[in-house]
Amino acid sequence: MREAFHDQLDSIFIDLSGIARQVQEAVAQATEALLEGSAEIAEQVISNDVKIDLARERVEDQTFSLLSLQQPVAGDLRTLVAALRMVSDLERMGDLAVHVAKIARLRVPERAVPEDVEPTIRKMAMVAELMTGKVADIIADRDVAAAADLHEVDEKMDQLRRKSFRELLGANWTHGIEPAVDLALLGRYYERIADHAVSVADRVHYVVTGELASTDA
Amino acid sequence: MREAFHDQLDSIFIDLSGIARQVQEAVAQATEALLEGSAEIAEQVISNDVKIDLARERVEDQTFSLLSLQQPVAGDLRTLVAALRMVSDLERMGDLAVHVAKIARLRVPERAVPEDVEPTIRKMAMVAELMTGKVADIIADRDVAAAADLHEVDEKMDQLRRKSFRELLGANWTHGIEPAVDLALLGRYYERIADHAVSVADRVHYVVTGELASTDA
After folding, report:
1. What is its main location (chains A, B) (predicted)?
2. Which CATH superfamily is domain B2-209 in?
3. What is the percentage of chain B residues whose pLDDT exceeds 70?
């Protein structure tokens, strides 16, 4: 009975890791749509989001049924509740990728990001995608050390966000209002993807150790 | 035993409603800081946020202990899991009020919002505060009808956000980049407060009826 329970728990974590991979793909594609100015790829991100939503529902259903049929306590209860929160973070990351794709789509056939500030937003996008990929591994391997490392990567994101603000508010900005507003929002979306990635990693830490991550205050 | 359980469940909902009131106050004060350009009020919102975080922890602890000691099934289980999600939405709304306050503080002694576009952002702020207040009542009264109404109020928010974009991207915009970026982000923060309010209301609907709100797909 308990063994079957832990098999089901493992299966939920495999699903969570799979959702993180789907989100990573969504982030990568949204960035491609943004930097290439591709409506087609943007549409793909937007229409694929329903798959992430469905995968979320499946994990929620499985988790609820384990909660209600097995009535777990202590560590197992903590793990199931953490799974519900992780899937909610992951789904939100998918939504944020959709927001990026929608800005890309809005500006087609132009590209939303002016060439001279593309390096910064490209780096933010790469960090967001990297963090999402790491999250997939962290969930699959219950890798507490890698979960802790994610906080450092997130600092890189914060630095890039500040740099992006300096660029668009600087005296050299010649692109007018619309690209500035797009960049501010894009920066916010990538930053939030990173925040949710850290949150998922912290929950893995909590599941494995029973303790809140030190920076999770 | 079951009666004690339901007393404890009621007590959790009273706490949730209380947190919603704290958040409503935070939203109101953040808006005041923003529109008056008051660093003092902004600081107050920022430092008060720790109280919301602590209140969240208390609700989480209570909910966990009920989950683990009482091992509820069906409706009671659903209610407790919903409580965990509601408190997470509410805390996030508090964080968003802090983001508004931080933009206010950044621009002191100036005001972040130019006078001619203040009416739109003021309306967004009022809608966000109104929705947060309604959420406090909806939780306290398990008011499913009012929860459904919140979707309509949220449409008002979406209209205002679009109006705000038209203003700051319009040909008449004379305020330069920084206020445009501030307004875009402020609009985003108020819109997200409203989204979370709808999410909390939908969870009340779910707790009471056992069914997902129709627009909660």
Report:
1. cytoplasm
2. Phosphate transport system protein phou homolog 2; domain 2 (1.20.58.220)
3. 97
